């Protein structure tokens, strides 16, 4: 089962975030004020401590502690008082010939009491496994929201570069218009492009603010004090092989929870079987004879008779519930292996696209843009051709960001599925 520290490490390692983005943000931002930031480890720690859903579930765990304590208590003995041959007629008038018996009786529970204990203990283990699963889910959701914040920050950097490029374009077009080599319409189009890119920049700022608030809500905060998250999308994983990941599915918190639930069903079946026969009851006491002032020992046993088992229905129910747990295990294994395969293929595809954009597409487009810029200034290329190359480069940069986001999201899902870290961090 995953501990708090292991869950934090798992998600943090899986995302491979570094602090390099802070320096980039400082270089790109025009603000003189250093923004307050938070890192992923802090975000997950706050989630574990203050997440409303996790705090609610803690009460259920405490209630289960009470149930387990109660299961350990044996049935209380009963004190019986019996008055005979008194308050009648004739010689039995009054209490002179009365016989009074005081006895104590208790139920022989046998295996039944141990069955209650086993069910309560198995219930505690099942809830503990579910608690660990909820904690990992909360950590994964926090990591997902953290990644969205990081993605919006990267998109904002791209938007700032785009606005800057549009402004440089206006400056270059203005020079050609002043020299009479370019019509005024091109300058108007370039200025409109600046305005459009500024609007896109503003849209991303709003999205970043919203994603920051969604992240803070993971630990119950509605007015976050931080405005940035630390990390870099450029840090990518070196992947573990699919076959290794497949063997680790058995460590999945979902499987652990299912196995705990299966143990609970086994304990419930054993309890139902132990209750198939009625419990015997033993009595032991003393009788007092008023006529002679003598006392005598009284002992007895109560043995139910009739059908041997009056719990057949519950035994059948418990047995079928256990069979259902076994069937769920097979179902879960097929579903998880299929999901793992699909996620792994998608991650490989994203990694391939990222490598292509970094090593081939973007460098070529940056080179093309430089040459096109020179050609435009010399009058060999039109404004349309120049803008076309700019648009291709901007699209490629955006695609790189989106593919990087997709890769990190797949890492989160794979680690959540397997319950173990699948990568070692490396920066390309």
Number of strands: 8
Class of secondary structure makeup: alpha+beta
Overall mean pLDDT score?
A: 77
Record the strand order, biggest sheet.
Answer: 2-3-6-7
User: What does the radius of gyration come to?
Assistant: 37 Å
Give the percentage of residues in beta strands: 5-15%
Estimate percent helicity.
Answer: 55-70%
What's the shape? elongated
CATH class of the largest domain: Mainly Alpha
Instruction: Give me the strand/helix succession.
Output: HHEHHEEHHEEHHEEHHE
The major β-sheet equals: 4 strands, antiparallel
- Tell me the number of helical segments per DSSP (H or I, 4 or more residues long): 10
End-to-end separation: 33 Å
What number of structural domains do the residues give?
A: 2
Instruction: Enter the CATH topology name of the largest domain.
Output: Outer membrane efflux proteins (OEP)
